[in-house]
């Protein structure tokens, strides 16, 4: 491995030189250089260096004191850089390239645009206009928000005379709060935004805690400015995002619609005995009155051939991106992402729920995607260090699983999992490389997808095959024992398997099949097209019985099986949820365990929301009784009057509806190629 010496620098100068101080252009590419090879004492003698090529090396960062006061052009392509903030030591830098550094993201682009005021070209593109927006408009709006947050929540907490301990306490609380609550721009820039917010907040505290805050006019003006910002229309927000898109080629196929707002009603107008509710149930509904949601965006981003006339592509699956808990984006104060992956037709999209921006789009012309799932892999990078990255798995009609490293915009591999279509996929919550695939071949397979190396080489292996009696439609791992039991809703019933890997047999039959009420008897023969856990024990399932969603106890049902060979067990029903009387299949449900909510769409474009937080404690007791009456929804979100080119779309079925873990956003996938995003108000 080459080490940098005075002789090497003189030899690699362009043209070759006899004095270090005379070198203006230097080529140090393809030398296998690591960060430790860049000796600041040696580089400090390159006083007139203007162009430096460090491409095709092994650099993971820059030393903080290279002292190149006249550097104008820097090439760092094909390295392993993880951070760009040290580049601020080159204030005269005008041209910068760092392509093919897989660990750098859009957030790093924005950081260098802010830090380097003279930067004109980034990775070969003119960023003058965008950089001006980042340094001035973005900073002004964030400063306004930070100031308003202090005035509203923290100013009164600081006494006129304060101690150092009080300042330290307020500072800690304010920095945590402001990074959590000040949001601006698309979620793909959330790391940059938090970085700038922290910087602005620290500058603000340095000023405000060092001097008396006597000005009353400025805070009012800032608060007013912040109020205007908070009422920004989606169209105005999209204009801000468009400036980002001009440079970074965002895909933003937003459906042009007119929404006629109407008062949202809790629709409990169905007739029948099921509508009579006890006082406790009525009280529960009144408590839920404050929980409502309003439509935010309607997107048509899965169109075949990007056609705006496509209202036939079915959308099937969506899942929110997990927040990385390690690496460059580590931030324990962030609870959940606002980026969601959706799939349908030939494409998979990543959408920022707040702005409605389609951040990324992946297409496979011969595929129809049915399911997506996230995992976070800890990958080994240079010098044996580890870093977490989110990986997206997508699968569908071809029976192939695509593995996508989203931050790198790279589909690095595929697994030919089944010869028939894959209905759904999910990752183990405890084993990040374990992926379950449920197929129309009536099998559920468990795969170890492996961890890709720095060249994206990986090895996938099949660990287990679960034999089903019919096509599996939905799968769920039991929260209390995700490495031991898996549930599946199938065309012919609800089944459970033992998935422990310490057993010898690789192919296994089901362990149990669950019976459910059917008029006056119990039956196992019914389609279960909705399945999810509400908490560690309560299962929510939807079957072909019209107008009913069951809640039942996993532990009490499965324990009744005993140690014998009995495989048919009766589900211990805890409650029934009132739902649409349609016999339409494949309108699946989801849960938000943290908030105790169940969501399910219907055949009219509506979303039924059930707040079950007040019931779960009683159900959790060993002798918890079944709720006698059907539980009505806390609210039904009705499909708004939506017109495309003056006409309403055809019949709208809600195939899937999913909330983020904090229940801030609700993503609704339809049968007419429209993704609707609602926000809790």
TrEMBL record:
Predominant subcellular localization, coarse grouping: nucleus
SMART domains: WD40
Protein keywords: Centromere, Chromatin regulator, Chromosome, Cytoplasm, Cytoskeleton, DNA replication, Kinetochore, Leucine-rich repeat, Nucleus, Repeat, Telomere, WD repeat
Subcellular localization(s) per the UniProt record: Chromosome, Centromere, Kinetochore; Chromosome, Telomere; Cytoplasm, Cytoskeleton, Microtubule organizing center, Centrosome; Nucleus
Top-rank taxon: Eukaryota
Transmembrane segments: none
Domain spans labelled Leucine-rich repeat and WD repeat-containing protein 1 WD: 292-680
Family, per entry: Belongs to the LRWD1 family.
A biological process from GO: establishment of protein localization to chromatin
Descriptive protein name: Leucine-rich repeat and WD repeat-containing protein 1
Cellular component terms per the entry's GO annotation: centrosome; chromosome, telomeric region; kinetochore; nuclear origin of replication recognition complex
Any one GO molecular-function label of the UniProt entry: chromatin binding
WD repeat positions: 415-449
Region annotation (Disordered) ranges: 215-237, 262-291
Biased composition (Acidic residues): 215-231
Any single Pfam family the record assigns to this protein: WD_LRWD1
